[in-house]
Amino acid sequence: MFSMGNRNIVSIAAIIASILGVFIPIPTGAQLIGVCYGMAGNNLPHPSDAVKLYQSKNLKAMRLFHPNRAVLEALKDSNIQLMLGVPNTDLRSLATSRSAAKHWVQKYVKAYSQRVSFKYIAVGDRAIPGDQARYVLPAMRNIHSALSSAGLQDRIKVSTSVATGREVLEQYSPPSSGRFSSHASTQLTPVVRFLAKNGVPLLISVFPYRRYVGDPNHIGVDYLFFNSSRTVVKDGQYSYQNLFDVIVDAVYVASEKVGGTNLTVVVSESGWPSAGGFGATKEHARAYNQNLVNHVGQGTPRRLWKSLETYVFEMFNENHKPRGTEQHFGMFYPNMQPVYPMNFN
Ligand SMILES: *[C@@H]1O[C@H](CO)[C@@H](O)[C@H](O)[C@H]1NC(C)=O
Ligand SMILES: *[C@@H]1O[C@H](CO)[C@@H](O)[C@H](O)[C@H]1NC(C)=O
After folding, report:
1. Cα-to-centroid distance, 339 and ligand 2 (Å)
2. 157 beta partners
3. I want to staple 178 with a disulfide (CB 3.0 to 4.6 A). Which of 165, 224, 254, 271 is the partner?
């Protein structure tokens, strides 16, 4: 996308911006925005219609939480890049049996790989910390070698997704204080080192909404929607105007503290509910998601101008999720009408 000259201009501008502590908007390179496609509903559109909706909205990437044959079929020749999840219930068998991992890759990846653009396999979702946590890294290794056997190891990256709530990211503000919980750290440390060493991103879910709901008296509203012009958190040379950046940068710092130097991340989930509870309105959801999409190309203060690949949570409202806000993260109703307008161009 860039010529060398542009790259220099971008880095000079980034240096000036960080010296002055100001924001200079400069278009960044290829920025990938995806949307999570959760399927916990009995009234959702057929996968082929859902895929058409992705295409009509110019959405280039999808996160699917577990394999679904109808979705994989619908994705054929769509050019939509796919992050495919391995359910936590499969972690143990995939960690302990190489042939189970081979079988999984054969059945859900290799069988479609000619016509579906797999980009990541997310081995486990928020499995760390927890009962399945110790299976995550061995399952990642087995899936990786199964992909190698299938000749797909260069195309498809193997990672895992983790939350950034207190159970994982115990300390997050200011970001320089970022620290993983001791509970998560045992299993997360080797994963983070492994990913950093191999240049594969850690997948993180980032929900300022949940931090806000947990502490609304201390977290100001102007800090949530990417529209504050004032610095809310000053952290040495870094100035923060939104909570999202604080959380992401705290993950970088926490990773460095456990030996994961230069770890990269992909935001595999971030969103805001439009109904069902405190702070959940269509206007808030629209503002958060639209400004998120517009923001992530700039990176965060600690990784300025490094475009952050981000998956908005989520495509549809899901009526089989727990009652309350959980059912209202969708940008579309199950009948495919928008809950609020969004622009992904
Ligand atoms: C981290 O990245 C910097 C800048 O690209 C590089 O100089 C350094 O060697 C890297 N460190 C490791 C441990 O990979
Ligand atoms: C930022 O967006 C939120 C949500 O739409 C809104 O309530 C707030 O007034 C906005 N703040 C500024 C400074 O524009």
Report:
1. 19
2. 120
3. 254
**Residue 233 near residue 246, CB atoms below 8 Å:** yes
CA neighbor of 267 nearest in space, from 284, 244, 301, 290: 244
CATH code where residue 73 lies: 3.20.20.80
Q: Is residue 171 a part of any domain in this protein?
A: yes
CA 135 – ligand 2 centroid, Å: 43
Tell if the pTM clears 0.70, that is, is over it: yes
**269 classed as catalytic:** yes
Domain count, the chain: 1
User: CA Rg, the chain, in Å?
Assistant: 20
Active site residue 326: yes
CA 228 to ligand 2: nearest atom: 13
Backbone angles phi, psi at 265, to 5 degrees: -130, 155
Residue-number span of the structural domain to which 162 is assigned:
32-327
Q: Is 73 a catalytic residue?
A: no
Per the CB < 8 A criterion, the answer to whether 142 and 94 are in contact is yes
* Within-domain flag for 93: yes
For residue 77, is it within any domain?
yes
Pairing assessment for the beta strands 179-180 and 169-171 based on DSSP bridges: antiparallel
